[in-house]
Amino acid sequence: MDEQKTKGQMLAENILYEGPDGAETFTEEEYQRADDFSQDYKRFLTRAKTEREAVAETLSILEEAGYQPFEAGKQYVSGDRVYLNNRNKSLVFATIGRRPLSDGVRIMASHIDSPRIDLKPHSLMEDTGLAYLRTHYYGGIKKFHWPTLPLALHGVVCRRDGSTVNVTIGEAPGDPVFCITDLLPHLAKEQEKKPAEKAFDAEKFHILIGSLPFKDDKASEKVKLNMMRLFHEKYGIVEGDFLSAELTVVPAGSARDVGLDQSMIGSYGHDDRVCAYTSLKAALEVASPEFTHVTVFADKEETGSDGNTGMKSAFLRYFLEDLAAPFGIPVRTVLSRSKCFSADVNCAYDPTYPDVTEKSNTAQLNHGVVITKYTGSGGKGGTNDASAEYMAWVRALLGDAGVLWQTGELGKVDVGGGGTVAKFIAELNVDTVDLGVPVLSMHAPFEVVSKIDVYSTYRAFKAFAESRK
Ligand code: MN
Ligand code: MN
Known about the structure:
Blueprint: H1 7-15, H2 28-47, H3 51-64, E1 68-69, E2 81-86, E3 90-95, E4 106-111, E5 116-127, E6 130-138, E7 151-158, E8 164-169, H4 189-193, H5 196-199, E9 207-210, H6 222-235, E10 245-251, E11 256-258, E12 264-267, H7 270-285, E13 293-298, H8 315-324, H9 331-336, E14 339-343, E15 346-347, E16 369-372, E17 376-377, H10 388-400, E18 405-407, E19 417-418, H11 422-426, E20 431-436, E21 438-439, E22 447-450, H12 451-466
Helix pairs in contact: 2-12, 7-12
The structure holds manganese (II) ion (2 copies).
One manganese (II) ion (MN) binds near residues 271, 302 and 443.
């Protein structure tokens, strides 16, 4: 009934932005594909709860797909697939494109660490007949989330002889779990008066791991001794080995569907393995790209991207330098002509907490992958800010590929803020924008994403890896 539209309606249709499309634009077939995709994603999430596990899981997928360990100095040709494992905690992998590296590459960079509770080096202790592990939390957590949650122990212990043991307790059926205890409400009058930030003392985040003593009249700290005996029997480690270990506790259990309609996924660690997984799947499927595409899984984003496995490390630059050197191409040329999707999550609008976000500039669940021009805090401090030119390029790319997308900011002006790896890649003179999945309850032990958004993010990375200009 076009002829019945008023002039104003037609004008509005032509020149006003109506906002992003939502779930209703997804066909049944598309939704089925999104649901299928999410089944594999849930398996990945459940198996990869730490950066080391994410690297191990990804390496087995890459090797299966024919990726080879990267050799510096080798002249790679179109279609070659390589990976560089940085200390089992971060990873770079690439598929060589048809164009020369001097035309730049496509970088998809996510992080594979998540907020959690690490063990202290001197960890094992006993108090009044109970054995505990002392901890030091990692990343941005709300402390009240963690007490009374079933927890699993993950990580590695490196012995003096150089051998390494992988530890996982609390995930297999029949495994015990651990926990941080909390005060009963009957005696919590004083605790409940405190602001949430003060109610829980992270120094007292002691993980309860046992209660039975080793039967010996003369030994002291018999419960601690008994727990060390169990660690020794299972893993062949002694207490001193905790000094050269990376052990962490994370929520126990599997990723699972949320909602009667099973439209969402609830899990620990969506941030940011949801972007790692979607970029991995896209990279695997684009086997003969126009531009070389490079996927990066970084560690330490949740604590500021420091260290030799974080995005501030030179490992990506060195990789590109080594890739380009055999062709006599300076890495600065490669980087200056490259484009990057900094693949990270953003907050989803939560109707329960509308006050912290400005609705028209906040991502909504089921409205697709979210493009975030800038993050940071205050007056756009501490962030990459994607150029208008690059935003236009991304809009066109996703629009042409029929990807469901939206834009979002991280909260109202001056309410808070955050950052991603974007600024560290932009510093290398790469056009960079943040792009990823909107999340409810970000950084909580149980974060929620929508299957439509996960699938749309995968499709966005695929369009990027396939891009021809
Ligand atoms: Mn993140
Ligand atoms: Mn985060």
